[in-house]
Amino acid sequence: MKTHLLLLLLLLFTIIVNAQFTITGKVVDEQNEPLPFVSILVKKTNIGTATDHNGEFSLSFSREIMKIKISSLGFASQQIKVNSKTKSLIIILKEENNQLDEIIIAAKQRKRVKKKQNPAYRILKEVWSRKRRNGLKLVDNYEYKQTKNTEIGLNNLDSTFLKDLLRGNYKSRKEIIDQLPHNETNVNYYIPFFLNEKIVTVYGDNKIDIEKEVIEAERNSGVEKDGFIFERFSNTLIPIDIYKNNIPLLKKSFVSPISTSGFETYDYVLSDSIVVNQKKQYQIYFSPRRNGDLAFEGFLWVEDKNFAVTKIEMEIRKDINLNFVRNLSFKKEYIIKNDSIYLPKKDVCIGDFAFSDKKGDNKGLSIKKITYFSDYVFNKYLSKDFYSKKIKQTRPYQFKRAESYWDTISKENAKTFSLIKAIKTQNKIKETTQKITIFSTGYVNITPSFQLGQYWDLLTKNSVEGLKLKLGFRTFKTTDDRLRLRGFLGYGTKDKKNKFGLETKYLLSHKPRIVMGLAYLYDTEQLSGNLLRTNGLNAKYFDTNSLFSRGDNFFLSFVNRSILQFDLEVKKNFHVGFSFAHNKIKSATKEKFKIDYVDQNGGIKSELTDVSSDIYLTYTPGRFEYGYGVEQKIGKNLYPALIINYRRGYKNLLKGDFNYDKIQFNYRHPILLGKLGTLITIIDAGKTFGTVPLSLLSPIPANQTFWITSGTFSLINYYDFVTDTYISGHFDHHFNGLIFNKLPLIKKLNLRSVLSFKTVYGSISKENSMINRSDIKYAAPTNKLYYEYGIGFENIGYGNIRPLRVDFVWRGDHKSINALPAPKFAIRVGISTDF
After folding, report:
1. Of the ranges 91-105, 370-384, 817-831, which is most confident?
2. 644: which strand partners?
3. For a 10 Å CB count at each end of the chain, is N or C smaller?
4. Contact partners, residue 606, CB within 8 Å, separation at least 6
5. What b/e sequence results for 782-804 when a residue is b if at least 16 CB atoms lie within 10 Å of its CB, and e otherwise?
6. DSSP state for residue 784 in the 8-state scheme
7. What is the pLDDT of residues 327-341, one digit of tens each?
8. In whole angstroms, what is the distance from residue 43 CA to residue 80 CA?
9. Domain presence at residue 108
């Protein structure tokens, strides 16, 4: 069991590409004092590093014999020959008085100097001034080819673990292990699980500001990734632009090493100058000024005269405050054309994710993405019709090509593809992937096309149903299924009632993308848990059921609902939807909660039939969607989201009780504020036109559970506020360690601070109040705003597992309504799997 659990946890983590040889060393002066930020360069290459604060360094290389150059301002340079047998060095530098001509090559000053006194400043200033002159945007038309490789695997595996993982024929197992990459000690191995290679041609026209990608070929091999967390981690590693002042990465904002405000975050050292292709280049070493800052450490090379960055190698420090991340490294190379245009040549991104801690000797999940750029063509005009005709990928193997084609492209990945082919047939590998599917999706395979789950929804509790048992299921062959059927069976131990729900979706068309759905629900619901409740596809609501919550919750409705749905993708990230719904709504417990109202004849009714249609628009610019089935996956990047929903109620149609109109608006926008952190803003607004009872109004969403839930208020009760017109705002500012990283003792805890503020204004009309005969007293935050505010601490946990957030929440003046007390202060807990 322990082995199985370990296998589950392993797949949360990524790869460090091990060099063939590695040497370590320490540089000191003649008094045996360590020398920080000394340049260590491999001669006749651009490979290099620098000593840390303790004068220590580590350097990897691939040749049997190499020469390294050790240099620092004020000290005589040394050249040392090393070979594969060299393991550790102690290097003593002697002081000298000679200075270099032209620009002074400097080691990091033991005492920080002003930026204008730093020799690197002059070079970086020139880089800043030429930002807009670099890149493909300087030509009218462009065309180039991309070769994209994505490789996923496990690293730091010992031979004992591999033998257990690769059970079966000993000879086959030995042949596989002999092929695996390993470190120089032959102790830790890397095993690839999945490899994708894609050939893409990119066309662009700057005059009409349009770009088109044409996939020429694609191939992949590996273990089945249905439900894999592999895919989710892989899609977090997106291309970065170093020329932007702030780089969005892992839902956070990192300061670019060539940011115009870089000297506020980085220390720079002009460490050396070299000649490449008869052109002089300056090497600048950069490192964060403060431990824990969202910044990088590494080298960049700048060409003289045109001051364009020709190459950059950087990685995050091990002390950076990120969950699961053991290392992230980036390497970008550029071609300099006509001294004014830079063109991408190679882009490498390597992620190493570890579950237990940040040490380099524990098992981890590795993700490596490499993109090669070639075959540039400029000022070749193509018509607008060419750009308007796009080939949309609608199935995984749409661009599959014969092996003979790939032989003409490159044989670089041939060995890895062969290795993966042998690995994925191993039974132990298949067992491991099945367990990962269960762990990451919550579903258990019963047959190859039928699953039960999700296991975390199995048990809930409320005052009406008591302990509620809920068994879910779905059809599932692959993530690219065009048809999906899902549902659940439920039972309340207190109300002794059976509940169930069933939904089916079918992808009618890939281009344009059109999805149709049917749904039926026979269950209890908390109608005071959300403001915007569309009947659209993929509508997910806050579930007020929880094993633990404050106070009683009898304010539940029993709903019998039928829905017909359509969703059309007009363009990428812009959807238009239509739905038609028939709802029968009544109280789940009439003894404790009445929803009675006066009908048009003056009679009192306790049940409601609502027949309505929804038309909604959703716009999510920048959202990353992937998959070719009826249910697409959403990437972990930050993006704004806008939803506008118009609902029309129909009286007498299918026995509907009310005519009404309701328009609602929801806007969510995460804003990256550089070093200040991330502000997440949610704005809700809506209005109901017509006279309707409680079940069709807009109660302000309460949250009586102990969990932090976006868009809800923690210190009011269900139905404390009932409105037909409202506007609310929720604001969470995540400082991402900005404050705590500067506090000497607290910074060791790796905590992050959060400030939150939420408020709402609303009203209720006399007409809607007059028909009310429920036991709910209508009240709305009309005379003054209701608000809550809090301070929170997130990134709580142990080692590299820090999913917890704790908020301390207070509210403004508020009187208890409906005879239920509401607390003035509360502590709430949240769980997040973000980085």
Report:
1. 370-384
2. 617, 665
3. N
4. 586, 587, 590, 594, 595, 596
5. eeeebbbebebbbbbeeebbbee
6. S
7. 889 999 988 776 567
8. 10
9. no
Q: Identify which has the larger pLDDT, 271 or 495.
A: 495
- What beta strand segments (E) does 764-812 contain? 786-798, 801-811
Q: Is the pTM of this model over 0.90?
A: no
- Is there a contact between 436 and 228 (Cβ–Cβ < 8 Å)? yes
Q: Could you tell me the two tokens for 183?
A: 């470190």
Looking at the structure, tell me whether residues 199 and 85 fall in a common domain.
Answer: no
Largest Cα separation within the chain, whole Å, is 103
How many structural domains comprise the chain?
Answer: 3
The three state secondary structure string of 112-136 is CCCHHHCHHHHHHHHHHHCHHHCCH
Question: How would you classify the pairing of strands 633-634 and 641-649?
Answer: unpaired
Q: Is residue 569 a part of any domain in this protein? A: yes
Give the dihedral sign, CA 236/237/238/241.
positive
Residue 224 pLDDT class (50, 70, 90 cuts): low
Q: Are 686 and 663 in contact (CB under 8 A)?
A: yes
- Do both 658 and 559 map to the same domain? yes
Q: What is d(CA 516, CA 508) in angstroms, rounded to the nearest whole number?
A: 7
| Burial degree of 155 (CB within 10 A; 0-12, 13-18, 19+) | buried
Identify the bridge partners of residue 154 per DSSP, sorted by sequence position. 191, 365
Q: Does 119 map to a domain? A: no
* Domain boundaries, position 71: 21-103
Residues 348 and 487 in one domain: no
**Structural tokens at position 824:** 């003035």
- Is 820 part of any domain? yes
Single out the residue in 83, 103, 123 at which a domain terminates.
103
Helix (H, G, I), strand (E, B) or coil at 748: helix
pLDDT tens profile 446-484: 998 999 988 888 998 889 999 999 999 999 988 889 999
Same domain assignment for residues 714 and 757: yes
Element (H, E) at 652: none
Cβ distance 26 to 53 under 8 Å? no
Tell the residue number behind the tokens 């002159």, with chain if given.
133
CATH number, residue 90:
2.60.40.1120
Mean pLDDT of 528-555: 69
Domain-terminating residue out of 103, 123, 147: 103
Question: Which tokens hold the place of 219?
Answer: 């191939």
Task: Describe the chain by its helix, strand, coil percentages, rounded to 5.
Answer: 15, 45, 40
Q: What is the CATH number of the domain that holds 518?
A: 2.40.160.50
343 and 452 both lie in a single domain: no
Is residue 764 located within the same domain as residue 740?
yes
Same domain, 643 and 700: yes
Nearest Cα to 86, choosing from 64, 53, 109?
64
Q: Which two structure tokens, joined as six digits, stand for 195?
A: 């490899």
Q: Are 489 and 480 in contact, with CB atoms under 8 Å apart?
A: no
Amino acid identity at 109: Q
Higher local confidence (pLDDT), 291 or 200? 200
